Amino acid sequence: MDFFNKLGKKASETYQVTKEKTVKFSEEMKLKGRMNEAKNKITNLYEEVGEHVYHQFKTNTEEGKEEILVKCEEISAQFDVISKIESDILALKEVKKCVKCGAEINKKDDFCSKCGKEQPKVEKVEVQVQPDSQEVQEAEVTEIKDVPENQSNDQ
After folding, report:
1. Is 111:98 a contact under the CB 8 Å cutoff?
2. Residues 6+ apart with CB under 8 A from 117
């Protein structure tokens, strides 16, 4: 009977691992789908901006300038969406990008396995949401190195 108990326990553990991987994979595919939608929106917005600019060129007017600015703001917003989705995918995969070459590396790595660049330290800290609240949230703090200090304009 002990053999069957161990077999059942191992099968259950294997099922849980497979389930977790499937859920992560499914979530990653959803995020990539949303990213592709944002990229398609950007492409369409580029075409619309191009049409407006060409119309201005042909008619030799400034007509539609506000529409172009609105489209450009929409493009910027879509790039922000893509950036957020990329961050979500990295978090889901439990990796980070190298600060020098952009390779995906383990979150805990201190150096990039591709280029050897030292990576900033990432620490998890607990942050109290409100003084009277018992709710605690985690945040990641990234050490920033090699950033030039702002020079004052007092001359």
Report:
1. no
2. 98, 99, 100, 101, 111
Tens of pLDDT, residues 53-109? 999 999 988 888 899 999 999 999 999 999 999 999 998 998 999 999 999 999 889
Residue with tokens 């917005």: 45
Angstrom distance (rounded) from CA 59 to CA 66: 16
Both tokens assigned to 104: 């995906």
Which among 148, 142, 149 has a CA at the least distance from the CA of 119? 142
Residues 106-138: tens digit of each pLDDT: 988 999 999 999 998 866 655 556 655 555 555
Q: How many residues does the chain have?
A: 155
3-state SS, residue 63: coil
CA 54 to chain centre: 34
Give the residue carrying structure tokens 């398609």.
Answer: 40
Identify whether the C-beta of residue 118 lies closer than 8 Å to the C-beta of residue 110: yes
Q: Where are the alpha helices (DSSP H) in 60-96?
A: 65-93
Please answer whether residues 120 and 143 qualify as being in contact, where contact means their C-beta atoms are separated by less than 8 angstroms: yes
H/E segment holding residue 96 = strand 95-97
